[in-house]
Every structure is written in C-alpha cells, then in structure tokens.
Amino acid sequence: KINPIRSNLSRSSETGLLLTSNLDFVGAGVNENYSKSVVVQKGEKLVLIVNNPKMSHQNHTLILHYPKTNLKVEVKDTVQQTDFQTIKYSLSIKDKMTKKLVLADVNISGLSKNPIFLKDVNNYESPLFKKNHHAVINVSAKGYLLSSVEIAVAMNEKEVVHDVFLEPIESGKKVNLKTIQFVGDRAEFLPNAASALKSLLSFMQLNNSVSIEIEGHVNGPGKPNSSEYKELSNNRAKAVKSYLVENGISENRIQFVGYGNSQMLYPQPKNSAEMTANRRVEIKIIAK
C-alpha cells in the first residue's frame, strides 16, 4: 500500500508542486493549482500518477527541477534579453465619464505568482513573463462603485494596455466579485478569495456612508431551490459579512441574503467556467 503525500485535483492544465505553496493536498473544485514542494533524499523513490480525462490519449509534459551547483550564466545584453522574455503591461484607472485618472486601491490576481496590492495609484506598469495570463483586477476608490474586471494577456503580445473605468456609486447597482470562491458545499473561503475580500473592505473603508447587501448564489442546474441550497448561499453571504465586521466595518451597514440556485447566471451551464460563474457573491448598493 502506498500512502499519498501530495494530491492535486486541479482544473488547470498546469499543476504540480511549488516552493511557495503551503498545501499538502488540493481538493476538487475551484482551488489552487499547486501543492507544496517535496524534499527528497538520494535513493528515495516516488511514484507519480497522472489521470486527466480531458486530455485522454494526448501527451503530458513533466518538468522536474534539480538543484544546480557551480552554474555560471553570462548575459551580454541584459536589456535585449529582458525585452525578449517579457510582455510590457500597463494599467490605468479612469473615471468612466470624464476619462480622467482616478486614485484608487488596486488588487490584481493572476499576473504573478502572488496577488499584487497597490494603494492610492492611478496607473501601474510591469513586465510580465511570456505566457498566457488570465487575471482579475479589483479596484476601489472614494465615490466610485467597486469594480471587478477579468482580463486576458496572450503570450504572443509584446505590449498590453488596459484601462479600468469607474462608475459613480448609485443605489441598486451590483458588483459580481468573481474571485470570492468557496470550498465545495461549505461556507469556507478558498485562498484566492483574499484579493476580492481586501478590495471590498477597502471600498467600505473609503466610502464610509455606503450600506450594502451581500447576495450569495450557488450552482444547482435542473434542481429545485432546496432549503440546503438556500442555507449554503446564506451562510456564504454571512461569511463575507463576518469578514468585514471582523475588520472594523459596522454591521449596521451590511445586510446579507442567500438566493440558493434561483438566480443562476447560466441555468443550463455548458462547462466548468459557467458552473463556477453560478457560484458567486454579489454586492448590491442599498444606500450611499
């Protein structure tokens, strides 16, 4: 009998072990792509099992990283080397009506290994590794509605420019915080929820007269909106409220409600992305 020491049930085509991860096991659902690295000794044997039904009868690429010693690298033209290996990326935050720059707090997930947190900025520039990127940008600013934007950067791009346009706060407006995701069938945040939660907290701190309703939704196509669905979505919305209250936001400014599967964005989801989109938390402005 062999006992597993690592397990990755990842939806991503890129998965494995990572030095910066602290997870022994990655469960099914919307989770991290990597579990933590393994220290091995000479003579030890490890068994790797790959089972990917979506890639049936196709190839897999296995990349192993070995420690290197006495390695000398000579780069004669550093600038040219960097330009070749990176994508020039720039982001600007603007008022939707005036197109003028706006100072804001910005959280970016997906452009680097760790989330990027920026405070009081109206633009951001950084080189990106030449690979396909899918990222979520959350922006909060005084007087403006919280914004959550998905972007894609293709590896063949040389330069990418993105503008995020902010709208003024209005009662009744909603924001879908796409990266507030939970462990399957539980009201427990996944690690990737941290960025969106921080942005929501920042929004509430910057706009201290605003009151919100947190709406929880689950994925349940073709099934009745059961009491279990309603309770789960309610508990997930309550978890977001608890996070805000624990970080200093008055509970009088926050209402929460769970809609179960009654308001799915995709009543008949065709893929995992649409199912994930159904499992969401939305923020509704009820007073400004």
Describe this structure in words.
It is a single chain. With 288 residues, this protein is α/β, with parallel strands linked by helices. It folds into three domains: 1-72, no CATH class; 76-168, Immunoglobulin-like (Sandwich), CATH 2.60.40; 170-288, 60s Ribosomal Protein L30, Chain: A (2-Layer Sandwich), CATH 3.30.1330. Helix content is 17%, strand content 30%. It has a four-stranded antiparallel β-sheet with strand order 7-6-9-10, covered by helices on one side. The chain has a four-stranded mixed β-sheet with strand order 12-15-13-14. A three-stranded mixed β-sheet has the order 8-5-11. The longest helix has 20 residues, at 227-246. It is globular, with a radius of gyration of 22 Å. The termini are far apart.
Oligomer: single chain
Number of strands: 15
The description of the largest β-sheet is: 4 strands, antiparallel
CATH class of the largest domain: Alpha Beta
The CATH topology of the largest domain comes to 60s Ribosomal Protein L30, Chain: A
